[in-house]
Design a protein that fits this description.
- The complex is a heterodimer of chains A (about 120) and B (about 110).
- With about 120 residues, chain A is an all-beta fold.
- Chain A is built from no helices and twelve strands.
- Chain A starts with a strand and ends with a strand.
- In chain A, about 35% of the residues are buried.
- Chain B is an all-beta fold.
- Helix content of chain B is about 0%, strand content about 55%.
- Chain B contains no helices and twelve strands.
- In chain B, the strands form three sheets. In chain B, strands 2, 5, 6, 7, 10, 11 and 12 form a seven-stranded mixed β-sheet that branches. Chain B has a three-stranded antiparallel β-sheet with strand order 3-9-8, with no helix packed on it.
- Classes of the chains: A mainly beta (about 120), B mainly beta (about 110).
Amino acid sequence: AQSVTQPDIHITVSEGASLELRCNYSYGATPYLFWYVQSPGQGLQLLLKYFSGDTLVQGIKGFEAEFKRSQSSFNLRKPSVHWSDAAEYFCAVGAGYGGSQGNLIFGKGTKLSVKP
Amino acid sequence: DVKVTQSSRYLVKRTGEKVFLECVQDMDHENMFWYRQDPGLGLRLIYFSYDVKMKEKGDIPEGYSVSREKKERFSLILESASTNQTSMYLCASSLRRWGYTFGSGTRLTVV
């Protein structure tokens, strides 16, 4: 069965420092991979997605993620964190076949706090 | 931009009431989803639909039902609200595998 693991429940970084959020997935075929961000009290916003091709994908707000098939990972990175990046981040894998086309499986999320 | 609109941001209902949560999308997406989100548990899929009048159970359908009479509208129904259904409810839509667009969520409190 497909699954997504985000090993870090909560991460605190200083403003201006680099960031890496980890995501590991379990999926039998080539996965469709996504990162979403959720600000407090809001819905989830798509940051970036990977379907195929270049394993380094660029997203909005200066985020990027790298797909590593050998490690079953899709880690999210940002070179310099801003206070406005404080939010919860969700990794997801697409399980879209048959009647459940487009069904995503989400990790439990990583909450990011940013120190001034 | 695709818009997914959830009719209420905050809702307070009494135990035993029948509750309707409405979700409307404006981009002709085939798939629509209802999740609930609770601290420490992440997003859990309640029901989804990949076509009008079609519905599939997700991971936690008990105590809920859904209705999709038109492509753009997907309603979540709590038949008899209970306090353990107090949660944030998120609706999403998608075109096949191209990722979800989420609504802003409805925070439901059952007292």
